[in-house]
Amino acid sequence: MTDKKSTHQRGTHKPPPNKGQPYTISETRFWCQRLAKTTIRALHILGGAVSSAGFIFAVDKALWINWWVLAMMSGVTMMSLEIYRSKLWLIQLKGILTFVKLFMLLSIVWLPAHQAHIYIAVILLSVFIAHGPAGLRHYSIWHRKRIDEKKQLNG
């Protein structure tokens, strides 16, 4: 005598979606997130570019201060999104060097005679962070190796 329950379920069991597979999102959601992140980055670059007039060419502060606020607010937004997405960002060079850039910008308060040089150094550092090799950006100062995914933390 066969068991009806086991015969009925044999071959019909389907694993839950995405079990054992990486988390996936819909194409629409992917594009919305990608466009939002790109928009924030574009605003950040625009704010930094326009406010550079004040730091490099000593243009009247009233002409560029709102652009500086835009650069800072969009920068904080990008940092927050990166930290929310992965806490690893805080120990990877891309995160550490972002904090170095913030400290360099803060140092302008104490070294105003060097503000143009400091601002240019921050821009150059930004290029290396954004466009450098992944091995540099994803290098963890804690683990002393490149860390891309959470599963690489063991060992």
From TrEMBL:
Residues 1-24 are annotated as: Disordered. The chain crosses the membrane at residues 39-59, 65-84, 91-110, 116-136. This is ATP synthase subunit I. The keyword Transmembrane helix applies. Keywords: Membrane, Transmembrane, Transmembrane helix. It comes from the Bacteria. It comes from Photobacterium angustum.
